[in-house]
Amino acid sequence: MLCERYDASDALLADSGTSALVLALSAVVPRGGTVAYPGYACIDLTAAAVRADVRVRLYDLDPSTLSPDLNSVRRALARGVDAIVVAHLFGYPADVERVKDLAARHGVVVIEDAAQAAGGTLHRARLGSLADISVLSFGRGKGTTAGSGGALLVRTGMLADWARKTRETLPASPRGGRQVVNLVAQWVLSRPDLYRFPASIPALRLGEMVYHRAGTPREMTAAAAAILPAALRTADREVARRRANALALDASMAGTRNFHPVESISGGEPGYLRFACIDNVGDAAPRPALGAVRGYPLTLDQHSPLHLHLLPGEKAESGAIFLRDRLFTLPTHSRVSRADLARLASWIAMPTPISPRPNSAH
After folding, report:
1. What pLDDT does residue 177 have?
2. Which CATH number is 2-349's, of 3.90.1150.180, 2.60.40.10, 3.40.640.10, 3.10.310.30?
């Protein structure tokens, strides 16, 4: 199903999206080699780099689209890398095609990180089908979820041979009963009005950027593998609901100066894992009870576990810093109700000022 859906030669199933990225790095970057990462992204990219033992350079993002800043990509490639990771953040298409054109001039492999692709497309092609090697995630909070798991998709004969050999060596995983329980809990608590209960428990650290050390990549659990086909069959219906909710949120911003929505690049149609918007002033207060939260609170160079792998002089640039300080994301999934959308519209119209948050690494 995955190969057909994403036009792949082979699909290597793993226990998580992070494990799939570790495998991708291991496939195309020599141990101790160098990969280019976006300066603003999920902390799981840091965990994968540490596990794969690769060095990291950074390139910038365009805050208006969440897509790579191509001039920054050019500079990163010129500084020397073995591969570059292009990530689709929150379901918004990143310009994989133009990055591939730039990378090809340097003989550099592009890894498409489609863990957050959520059914988005670019020129009608599914995100996750755009590079020779792509990563998917089916974990909690992803557009297509099986409770856990990930996949590495390959599209060349050499990588397909590597995938077949690697599949034979992956250690087995537990059956995955715990993931089934987590998946049910996620579904029950996915309504914004119910999310306020777990969000009020500090020990759960919901909405925080928490570093989880990547382990040895393993096979996908039996439970996740059993759930995944059904999740894939219902994915397009979920995408349609998210897009409809995103349209309503976009309309809510038309009459306010407080926020403006992140736009898609030309030819892209987001899957809207979350609706991304920019706080125009920088003083809007998150409302976790509504699912209105800030984006990632740190740029990648602020991730302390990455410091030993970050090459000298590599720092987040202005776009990544702007996103760290101004990006908000709002819920779009099918459990969001009209009442939830109305409450979010009220929050959009009248954000509550708060003191500036600290931006130091922690």
Report:
1. 55
2. 3.40.640.10
